[in-house]
């Protein structure tokens, strides 16, 4: 099924077309999604209300040299006035956009590397530009996201970022190299916004989390620390911990004795990762493809959601051959970090949310034990002592609802929302968007489901795999039947959501 067109108005003072749309179109081909870029002259931004209304994101990209040609004249008072005017302009644009659109706003921060003045004055830093950017970020915090153009230019190199030909012929000062990097960043923001990311990192231990072979060298002789040969492993642990804090599940798959590995996690003073950060340990002497498959099964995630990191070429090739859906990253301190670009994660995170998610997965062992000890499935459900809360969604829940719709593959009607979609629909007359929260005797699972009804049409139904097997979907359907007269259901059938289709066929008359 072809994805919808991605509408991206760009408020600008340079001739971005056809440069930007060409690069974005190439990237969005991966999602089979066409792109429509609408250049908006920044002095006429209020004349393009229709474009903002259907926008998926709005990109503000103003070139400082085009705005202030006399930037290098050295007049301090003139520059102070410019900062004030630019700040006021951005505040007005952001305020206007927030009133008429639910789309995410992304602002390109300013740069001034194209100036020829440092040739004669030397490179004295960009305190003025940094101050302007800092002022914009402080005044627009919470209203917009920011694209650090100076960092992108640094990554491609100043000499590769600009084009005199484009500048004088097309009023576009940048090169194709920079355009491609900016488009890649916008595409990355789209993937982040829609929750299109891997979910779990499975890591080996020996010569990955620490240097050395635990079974041969012993815990006291492992290379792990803030300096010397152990630093690269501690640095990698810190990186993994940063992923954990942004919602990535961490699992361990190692050929070792479990008691020895747990002793390192619990007792080695240089370990950054601790036992509570690991959602699943598969530590034994079985083959790693089988262990990774067990991890996927225990976490209720697909193999295509897993990234596996190991230093052994033999293990790497075994996983590639037997589990081709798994993304494999050979451990190498110089080359591996770039391969983690398959993750698309929000830079901010909610404190405690990751711990709650890990706790849910870890307590699944207790739930499975309860299931085996229960005399019947009904006794099991009763013993769970579930508390299900369904209420109309609030704006703070938009990001999680969008994440659910994007990540859920089994108990879903196939509808995918962005946070902007969820926020937009919350304010529509005749549209009811509900969030579903779940607790049981073992943990608080949080927001696990979402439903949306538009008139008499069910437009969204999504339930996290973490909540399956507990009749939560039955409670959701009962809630809908009590509150609404459902006459039509949007449903995109896949090879994974057949069970939900069967439930709908049973509960909603006329659904096929």
Average pLDDT works out at: 89
Shape: globular
The count of strands amounts to 16
Give the radius of gyration. Answer: 26 Å
First-last Cα distance: 19 Å
Q: Note the beta-strand portion.
A: 15-25%
Keywords:
alpha/beta; 16 strands; six-stranded mixed sheet; 17% strand; 43% helix; single chain
Structural description of this entry:
Strand 13 and strand 14 form a beta hairpin. Helix content is 43%, strand content 17%. Strands 11, 12, 13, 14, 15 and 16 form a six-stranded mixed β-sheet that branches. The chain has a five-stranded parallel β-sheet with strand order 2-1-3-4-5, covered by helices on one side. It has 512 residues and is an alpha/beta fold. The protein is globular and about 80 Å long. 34% of the residues are buried. It contains 21 helices and 16 strands. Helix 7 crosses helix 10 and helix 18 crosses helix 19.
What is the structure about, briefly put?
With 512 residues, the chain is of the alpha/beta class.
Give me the secondary-structure topology.
Layout lengths: L5 E7 L6 H10 L6 E7 L7 H5 L3 E5 L2 H4 L8 H25 L3 E5 L9 H4 L5 H13 L5 E3 L1 H8 L1 H4 L2 H7 L5 H18 L6 E4 L10 H4 L13 H15 L3 E7 L2 H10 L12 E5 L3 H12 L6 E5 L2 H10 L4 E4 L22 H21 L3 H8 L2 E6 L5 H10 L3 E2 L6 H8 L4 E9 L4 E11 L2 E7 L8 H12 L4 E2 L8 H10 L5
Parallel strand pairs: 1-2, 1-3, 3-4, 4-5, 6-7, 6-9, 7-8, 9-10, 15-16
Antiparallel strand pairs: 11-13, 12-15, 13-14, 14-15
């Amino acid at each position: 099924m072809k994805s919808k067109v991605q509408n991206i108005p760009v408020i600008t003072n340079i001739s971005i077309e056809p440069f930007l749309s060409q690069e974005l179109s190439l990237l969005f081909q991966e999602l089979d999604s066409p792109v429509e870029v609408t250049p908006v002259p920044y002095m006429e931004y209020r004349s393009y209300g229709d474009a903002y209304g259907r926008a998926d994101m709005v990109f503000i990209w103003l070139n400082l040299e085009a705005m202030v040609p006399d930037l290098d004249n050295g007049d301090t008072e003139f520059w102070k006035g410019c900062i004030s005017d630019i700040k006021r302009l951005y505040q007005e644009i952001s305020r206007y956009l927030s009133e008429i659109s639910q789309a995410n706003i992304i602002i390109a921060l300013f740069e001034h590397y194209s100036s020829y003045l440092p040739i004669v004055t030397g490179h004295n830093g960009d305190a003025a530009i940094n101050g302007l950017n800092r002022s914009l970020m402080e005044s627009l915090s919470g209203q917009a996201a920011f694209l650090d153009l100076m960092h992108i230019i640094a990554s491609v190199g100043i000499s590769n970022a600009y084009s005199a030909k484009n500048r004088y012929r097309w009023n576009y000062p940048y090169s194709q190299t920079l355009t491609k990097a900016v488009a890649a960043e916008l595409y990355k923001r789209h993937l982040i916004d829609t929750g299109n990311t891997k979910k779990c990192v499975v890591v080996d231990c020996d010569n990955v989390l620490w240097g050395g072979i635990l079974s041969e060298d012993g815990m006291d002789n492992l290379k792990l620390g803030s300096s010397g040969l152990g630093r690269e492993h501690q640095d990698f642990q810190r990186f993994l911990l940063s992923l954990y804090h942004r919602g990535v599940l961490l699992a361990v798959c190692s050929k070792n004795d479990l008691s020895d590995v747990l002793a390192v996690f619990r007792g080695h003073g240089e370990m950054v990762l601790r036992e509570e950060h690991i959602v699943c340990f598969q530590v034994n002497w079985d083959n790693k493809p089988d262990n990774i498959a067990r991890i996927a099964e225990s976490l209720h995630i697909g193999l295509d959601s897993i990234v596996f990191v190991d230093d052994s070429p033999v293990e790497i090739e075994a996983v590639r051959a037997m589990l081709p859906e798994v993304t494999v990253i050979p451990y190498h301190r110089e080359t591996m970090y770039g391969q983690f670009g398959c993750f698309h994660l929000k830079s901010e995170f909610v404190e405690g949310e990751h711990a709650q998610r890990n706790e849910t997965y870890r307590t699944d062992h207790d739930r499975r034990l309860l299931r085996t000890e229960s005399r019947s499935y009904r006794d099991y459900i009763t013993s769970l002592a579930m508390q299900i809360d369904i209420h109309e969604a609030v704006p703070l829940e938009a990001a999680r609802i969008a994440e659910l719709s994007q990540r859920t593959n089994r108990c879903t009607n196939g509808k995918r929302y962005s946070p902007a979609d969820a926020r937009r629909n919350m304010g529509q007359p005749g549209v009811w968007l509900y969030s579903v929260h779940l607790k049981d005797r073992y943990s608080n699972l949080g927001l696990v489901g979402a439903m949306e009804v538009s008139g008499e049409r069910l437009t969204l139904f999504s339930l996290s795999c973490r909540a399956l097997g507990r009749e939560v979907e039955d409670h959701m359907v009962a809630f809908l039947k009590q509150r609404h007269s459902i006459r039509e259901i949007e449903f995109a059938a896949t090879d994974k959501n057949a069970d939900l289709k069967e439930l709908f066929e049973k509960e909603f008359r006329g659904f096929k």
